Structures are given as C-alpha cells and as structure tokens.
C-alpha cells in the first residue's frame, strides 16, 4: 500500500487540495480532522466540556466513530448517524481542538486511521499523520499558508455555505487553534523531519493541487 501523509494547520486549504489530489491519484482520501470533530460533536451534544479531559475520557466507551465512502466522498458516522455536515459548524472546530489534546481520544482514533492505510492507498490529512499515525508514509507533506490567508479562505468557505463569518474573529480563532495544536503535549502539530514544506499562501486552488501532485509524483 502507498501512503501520503499531509499535515498542517487549520484552514490551509488542506482538505480541499488533498481531496482533489487523491481523486487525481485514485487514492482514498482520509480527512482525520473529521474524526476529532465527530468525537467533539458527541461531547457537545451530551453536555460534556471538551476541555475536561477526565469527563471526555469517561464518555469515550459510549462513542463509535466510523467512515463511509460514497460517490461524493468521505462521510463520518457518529454512533451510526451521518454527521458529515453537523461537524462543520464553527463551534465544533474549537471543541475538536480541545478534544484532540486528550491522549485517550487520540488513542481511540488511532487504529481507525492506521486500519485505513493498511487496506487502501491513502492520502491522509491531519496534524500528526507523518509524525505519529503513519511514520512510514512514502510521502509526507506539510501544507501551510499564512494565518491571514487561511482566515480569508475559511470566511469565504463559510459564506459559500450560507454561514455568516467575521474575518477578525475567524483570524483570532485560527491563531488560537494553531497555538493549541502546536503546543499540546500529545502529538503536537509539527512538520515531520522528512516532510516537504508546501506553502500555498501565494497559490490558488489549482496551483496548490498541481504542486502537491508534483511532489507526490517525484516520489512514487
Ligand atoms: O482539520 P480540522 O480543522 O477539521 O481538525 C479539527 C481539529 O482536530 C484540529 O484543530 C486539531 O486539533 C484536531 N486534529 C488533530 N489531529 C489530526 C486531525 C485533527 O489533532 N490528525
């Protein structure tokens, strides 16, 4: 099996670029952020504070998270319910970042991710794929963009979905999430030593996909 690990901060366009690149390569695209979001949604729905590590860990045995692939791509199931849309709400982003700092949550989602890579050629995107989940991935890319550019893109995305977005607030949330993801003790966001840096600040969507494919094809 061939694995491509793509890590990077929130809103760098990782998911859309990775999804498109996976399609071009005929690989299964695994968006691991969606798994953390599903766990976070469970906590929010059950009145559990996502930053309360003990309470989150205690709730985990009742949680099931699964992936299903349909013609339009990856769907995430939380206790059997398709929550692919619900996990995109902004309040779930912060909750996901909180939950993802809980070691038991990372452990809980680990085998689901490695299992996918054992069965399929995958292009997996997340924060710790090249460093922790798939340390032997054949290609590792750290995909990033400036915080301002990421905030602009996230606002545009939300607006397209009809959700009102405030640029300053989005930028603040992105910076907070970067801070939290980079400084947590378990599996912090950082480029794997053997990763290739891809900065998309100056690239449009097509350009980012092309660049990513170029990096992958050089290593296949
Ligand atoms: O990628 P996305 O923004 O959907 O991820 C939501 C949150 O899940 C991130 O802020 C990060 O804290 C966490 N995450 C993680 N490890 C991953 C993927 C996501 O910690 N592999």
Automatic annotation (TrEMBL):
Q: Gene3D superfamilies from the xrefs?
A: P-loop containing nucleotide triphosphate hydrolases
Domain Cytidylate kinase spans what residues?
4-217
A GO term, aspect molecular function: kinase activity
Record-listed ATP binding positions:
8-16
Q: Where in the cell is it found?
A: Cytoplasm
What's the catalysed reaction? dCMP + ATP = dCDP + ADP; CMP + ATP = CDP + ADP
EC number(s) on file: 2.7.4.25
InterPro entries for the chain: Cytidylate_kin, Cytidylate_kinase_dom, P-loop_NTPase
Q: Which key words are in the record?
A: ATP-binding, Cytoplasm, Kinase, Nucleotide-binding, Transferase
- Tell me the enzyme class: transferase
Q: Which family does it belong to?
A: Belongs to the cytidylate kinase family. Type 1 subfamily.
Protein name per UniProt: Cytidylate kinase
The species this protein was found in = Anaeromassilibacillus senegalensis
């Amino acid at each position: 099996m061939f694995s491509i690990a793509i890590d990077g901060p929130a809103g760098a366009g990782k998911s859309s670029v990775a999804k498109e690149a996976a399609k071009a390569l005929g690989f299964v695209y695994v968006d691991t952020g969606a798994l953390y979001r599903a766990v976070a949604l469970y906590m929010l729905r059950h009145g559990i504070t996502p930053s309360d590590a003990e309470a989150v860990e205690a709730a985990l045995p009742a949680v099931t998270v699964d992936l299903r692939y349909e013609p339009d791509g990856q769907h995430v199931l939380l206790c059997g319910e398709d929550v692919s849309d619900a996990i995109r709400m902004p309040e779930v982003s912060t909750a996901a970042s909180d939950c993802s700092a809980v070691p038991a949550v990372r452990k809980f989602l680990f085998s689901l991710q490695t299992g996918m890579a054992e069965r399929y050629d995958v292009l997996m995107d997340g924060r710790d794929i090249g460093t922790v989940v798939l340390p032997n991935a054949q290609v590792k890319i750290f995909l990033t963009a400036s915080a301002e550019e990421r905030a602009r893109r996230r606002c545009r995305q939300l607006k397209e979905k009809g959700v009102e977005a405030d640029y300053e607030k989005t930028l603040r949330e992105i910076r907070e999430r970067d801070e939290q993801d980079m400084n947590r003790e378990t599996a912090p966001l950082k480029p794997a030593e053997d990763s290739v840096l891809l900065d998309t600040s100056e690239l449009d969507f097509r350009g980012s996909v092309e660049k990513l494919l170029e990096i992958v094809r050089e290593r296949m």
